[in-house]
Specification:
The complex is a heterodimer.
Chain A lengths: L2 H13 L3 E2 L1 H12 L8 E5 L1 E2 L19 E2 L2 H14 L6 E5 L7 H18 L4 E6 L6 H9 L3 E5 L4 H7 L9 H13 L3 E7 L6 H10 L5 E5 L6 H23 L3 H5 L2 H12 L13 E4 L4 E3 L13 E2 L7 H11 L13 H4 L4 H8 L7 H20 L2 H5 L3
Parallel strand pairs in A: 2-5, 2-10, 5-6, 6-7, 7-8, 8-9
Antiparallel strand pairs in A: 3-4, 10-11, 11-12
Chain B lengths: L4 E4 L2 E6 L2 E6 L4 E5 L1 H7 L11 E3 L2
Parallel strand pairs in B: 1-5
Antiparallel strand pairs in B: 2-3, 3-4
The chains are: A alpha/beta, B mainly beta.
Chain lengths: 398, 57
């Protein structure tokens, strides 16, 4: 290599922010440490803290979050206005959550017409969604969801054996048959996605993915119930998820892209890889995302609800706990995750979920070794798959 | 930072269909690399006429 070729090569690498210089270091630090406030563009609304199921892994004590009750219409309206006022997006996201939100369908019927008025007043279009266990879906509810363009995600863990073992009613009966029956028409019409919680009895995520896609869910998202898993079981879950990605890569190689697109985990990773750019934290919790409990108290996300130390405000009084919010945003900022400073996957993983970190290590800024290892393996598999995709598929990730 | 040292942000090299790619950890950029890049990243200093030392994370 000549000196001129060498200089060109170095210049290119600098331009791609691949070579570390004092200037790029300072720029990155400044951007990541910026206190520039992004709007609140996603609100998770706890219309109820209570549930009709008794899931084996529920981290929220039967959906109650140690504080059983329902949200009033007044509080719900206040939360909607809070989102409209604080969002910078023209299409802020509003998710109805619980517990089981359809136990408070009465509230939704009154709230949604109000939301449409707020949309007009603030010149915004809310992107509404609901996460439900599917057991209360009847014709009236389904018509309501469809007519109001409310995206619906069903919590369903896999085949009958898995679902009935994990997701049971208070009388100890399983929920699989009922959920399959109640969701049949919407699944057939491509109107339902699925969120599956992985437990020690359902580590074979490929089998669950196959079953749930055969049920015609439009997308399947897996998340591990780490609170009921041993370290070995979590490692096995990691291996199984990598295995699923490898299977999906074979599907992509065979041109079966529609099935690949049904893996919401994979699609989320592919979008992150494709869009690149400097990121600050893993999910926007506490900044662009907030959760509002039945009293109107604001938390960084749904996982923190009822953890009073992390209450950052209230929809009636605003950002009353600014110090708590600022401390939280500092703690989730990747610049403050020292263990990640030399990691190649840092800008994808962003130190993982802040709440999981807190549960596993006692610190929002510290990721457990098991999760760290799993995340790197899964990102490797996702990048390998990304590289094998045709250009038009990659473009669709924009 | 020492001016005589080339320092890279954390990266990982991937191979796919006979091509090599580098994933840059700070910005998530993916770039196809050729033999020269790969040589540079593998610290084969002798390939370069310009004297330098390198530190690869």
């Amino acid at each position: 290599m000549t000196e001129s070729e060498f200089e060109n090569l170095i210049e290119k690498m600098k331009n791609f922010r691949f070579i570390r210089t004092q200037e790029t270091d300072e720029t990155i630090h400044r951007l990541r440490s910026s206190t520039m406030q992004i709007g609140v563009n996603s609100l998770i609304l706890f219309v109820i803290q209570g549930c009709n199921l008794r899931c084996s892994y529920c981290f929220a004590t039967d959906g109650e979050y140690h504080d059983k009750g329902i949200m009033s219409l007044g509080t719900a309206k206040k939360a909607v206005t809070f989102l409209a006022k604080h969002s910078t997006s023209d299409t802020p996201s509003l998710s109805f959550f619980g517990g089981e939100p359809l136990l408070n369908f009465k509230l939704l019927k009154k709230l949604v017409p109000h939301i449409h008025k707020v949309e007009k007043k603030y010149n915004k279009q809310f992107s509404m969604g609901i996460t439900t266990n599917g057991t209360l879906l009847d014709k009236e509810v389904k018509d309501f969801l469809i007519q109001n363009n409310i995206r619906c995600m069903i919590s369903m863990d896999g085949n009958q054996q898995t679902q009935d073992a994990n997701r049971r009613f208070a009388n100890d009966s399983g929920s699989y048959d009922l959920v399959v029956e109640k969701t049949r028409d919407m699944r057939e019409n491509n109107q339902l996605s699925c969120r599956a919680t992985v437990t020690p009895i359902s580590l074979d995520v490929s089998a669950s993915f196959e079953h749930l896609t055969e049920l015609n869910f439009t997308g399947v998202f897996f998340d591990a119930a780490k609170n009921v898993m041993s370290e070995k079981e979590y490692e096995e879950y990691g291996r199984q998820l990598v295995h699923l990605f490898e299977e999906l890569k074979e599907m992509a190689d065979a041109g079966e892209y529609e099935l690949v697109k049904k893996s919401s985990n994979l699609m989320n990773f592919l979008r992150l890889i494709h869009r690149a750019g400097l990121r600050k934290s893993s999910c926007g919790a506490g900044q662009s995302v907030i959760a509002v409990d039945i009293h109107g108290d604001i938390y960084p996300c749904q996982r923190y609800v009822s953890e009073k130390d992390y209450c950052i405000g209230n929809v009636y009084t605003g950002w009353t706990n600014k110090d708590v919010r600022n401390n939280f945003l500092d703690a989730v900022n990747i610049e403050n995750h020292t263990q990640c400073s030399n990691c190649w996957a840092k800008n994808l993983c962003m130190g993982d979920c802040a709440y999981e970190n807190l549960m596993q290590t006692g610190s929002i800024s510290q990721t457990s070794e098991a999760i760290c290892k799993h995340k790197k393996e899964i990102f490797e598999a996702a990048i390998q798959l990304y590289l094998s995709l045709p250009e038009d598929f990659k473009e669709s990730l924009n | 930072m020492n001016n005589n040292t080339l320092e890279f942000y954390p990266f990982r090299i991937f191979s796919q269909n006979g091509k090599n790619y580098i994933f840059s950890g700070e910005m998530s950029g993916i770039f196809e690399i050729d033999k020269k890049h790969r040589q540079l990243l593998h610290r084969k200093e002798s390939h370069f006429q310009k004297p330098t030392t390198m530190s690869v994370n």
